[in-house]
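User: I'll paste a sequence; please echo it back and then give the predicted structure.

Assistant: Echoing your sequence first, then the prediction.
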Amino acid sequence: MKEAGYVYILTNPSFKEDWVKIGKSSRPVDIRSKELDNTAVPLPFEIYATLKTVKYEQVEKLIHKTIDRLTDLRIRQNREFFNVSPAKALDILKDISTTLDDAEIDEVYLGENRKPAKQQADTEDCHKRQQRPRFKFSMINIPIGATVVFTPTGIEVKVADDDKVEYEGRLYKLSPFVGTFMPKEKQNTSGAYQGPKYFSYKGEILDDLRTKIENSK
């Protein structure tokens, strides 16, 4: 099985406020950031956030492509530097992470204060503990054959499997369905969606039903 790697968002005190470097690494990001600390930049890079996944190469390409779609935000073509705020880059990374089974996001840099190393490790453990399993209809007691509603348009679809719906003779997982049928005026900038937030069952959003069940345990 392929080893997990990292997609990282780096900032630098010598950069403009809304400049970031977004890249990938098969090794821990702190090692990569130290390699980038050379005479080309006057100050060391700081890790703003990371995403760990086996699909890190695809995620890096997707986040670059997503930011490029927004406008011409790449500072130089074929480089990993973007004229976008770190917070905006992190929002896009979070959106993409919802489509992955193994995503682990670590928000290393919060506000003006960088976390001590131990706190970073504690936070990473916390993120791992809080990582939700991928949504399945059985989690919220919705049977196969039931009808759920795609709330942005009111389309009714049938539950065909524990994690798929059927529409017009085709099977879809929830997140790809949202990406395919979301009206253009309601689309987000990343093109990545948390599927259960856009479907309802008997008038209740699937993600809300899941949260209620999780909180009752």
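The longest strand covers residues 46-53. The radius of gyration is 20 Å.
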